[in-house]
C-alpha cells in the first residue's frame, strides 16, 4: 500500500496530533543522535510540546553548546546589522518624528495665517499669544540694534570732533607764524631802501637858497 503525501498543515484532531508529535519527536531525536555519532558533530536539540513540555538532546553539554552558539553569533555579527527589536524601535522613532514634523508644519502654517478655516477659538488664542511674544522679542532685538548703531555713531562723532580740534590748533599756529615772517620781510625791505638813499652819489656844489643876490 502506497502512503499518500502528508499535507503540511495543522492536524485538527487532538489525538492524531499528539500521536504524530510523539512519532516525529522520537524520529528527530534519533536523527540528532545519529548525526552526532556518525559525523562527530556537536548537536543540541530543544523541543517544546504543545503542552509546554521540554524535550532536549545534546551530544556534549546543552549549556556549553548554547554558550558556543551565542559567542559565534556575537563574533559574526556586523556593526551595521540590527536585530528585529532594534529595527522596530527605529521604525517607531521614525514614525514619531514624522508625526512631530507634520504637527510643526501645521503650526507653522497657522502662525503664518494659513489654513485657519477650521480653527477654533481655543486654538486661535495660543497662536495669538505666541505672535505677541514673538513681536515683543523682535522689538527688543530691534532696539538693541538701534542702540548699537547710535553708540557707533556717537563714537565716530567724538573721533571726528577730536580730529577737527587738532586741525584747528594746527591752523591757528600757522596763522600766528605767517604775520611775523611778513613783518620781518617789510623791515628788511625798508632798511634796504634807506641804505640805498643814504649811499647815493651827489656831484656838484651844494644847493643853497639864494636870496636878494
How does the SSE layout of this entry go?
Elements: H1 14-38, E1 44-48, E2 54-58, H2 62-76, H3 84-111, H4 121-198
Antiparallel strand pairs: 1-2
Number of strands: 2
Instruction: Give the biggest beta sheet.
Output: 2 strands, antiparallel
How much of the polypeptide forms β-strand, as a percent range?
under 5%
Shape: elongated
Rounded to the nearest angstrom, the distance between the terminal CA atoms is 201 Å
Instruction: Identify the strand order in the major beta sheet.
Output: 1-2
Query: What is the H/E string?
Result: HEEHHH
Helical coverage, percent range: 55-70%
Tally of separate helices: 4
Low-confidence stretches: none
Work out the radius of gyration: 58 Å
Mean pLDDT across the residues is 80
What is the SS-derived class? mainly alpha
Tags for this model:
213 residues, mainly alpha, 4 helices, 5% strand
Structure description:
0% of the residues are buried. The chain has helices at 14-38, 62-76, 84-111, 121-198; strands at residues 44-48, 54-58. The N and C termini lie far apart (201 Å). It is elongated and about 135 Å long. It is built from 4 helices and 2 strands, in the order αββααα. Strands 1-2 form a two-stranded antiparallel ribbon. Strand 1 (44-48) and strand 2 (54-58) form a beta hairpin. It has 213 residues and is mostly helical. The model has no long low-confidence stretch (mean pLDDT 80).
Amino acid at each position: 500500500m502506497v502512503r499518500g503525501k502528508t499535507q503540511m498543515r495543522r492536524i485538527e484532531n487532538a489525538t492524531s496530533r499528539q500521536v504524530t508529535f510523539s512519532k516525529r519527536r522520537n524520529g528527530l531525536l534519533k536523527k540528532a543522535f545519529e548525526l552526532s555519532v556518525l559525523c562527530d558533530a556537536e548537536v543540541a536539540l530543544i523541543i517544546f510540546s504543545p503542552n509546554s513540555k521540554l524535550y532536549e538532546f545534546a551530544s556534549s553539554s546543552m549549556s556549553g553548546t548554547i554558550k558556543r552558539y551565542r559567542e559565534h553569533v556575537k563574533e559574526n555579527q556586523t556593526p551595521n546589522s540590527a536585530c528585529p527589536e532594534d529595527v522596530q524601535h527605529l521604525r517607531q522613532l521614525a514614525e514619531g518624528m514624522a508625526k512631530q514634523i507634520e504637527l510643526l508644519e501645521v503650526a507653522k502654517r497657522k502662525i503664518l495665517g494659513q489654513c485657519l478655516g477650521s480653527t477654533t477659538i481655543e486654538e486661535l488664542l495660543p497662536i495669538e499669544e505666541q505672535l505677541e511674544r514673538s513681536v515683543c522679542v523682535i522689538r527688543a532685538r530691534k532696539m538693541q540694534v538701534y542702540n548699537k548703531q547710535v553708540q557707533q555713531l556717537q563714537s565716530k562723532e567724538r573721533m571726528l570732533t577730536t580730529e577737527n580740534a587738532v586741525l584747528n590748533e594746527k591752523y591757528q599756529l600757522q596763522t600766528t607764524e605767517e604775520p611775523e615772517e611778513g613783518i620781518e620781510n617789510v623791515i628788511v625791505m625798508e632798511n634796504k631802501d634807506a641804505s640805498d638813499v643814504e649811499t647815493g652819489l651827489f656831484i656838484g656844489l651844494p644847493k643853497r637858497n639864494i636870496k636878494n643876490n
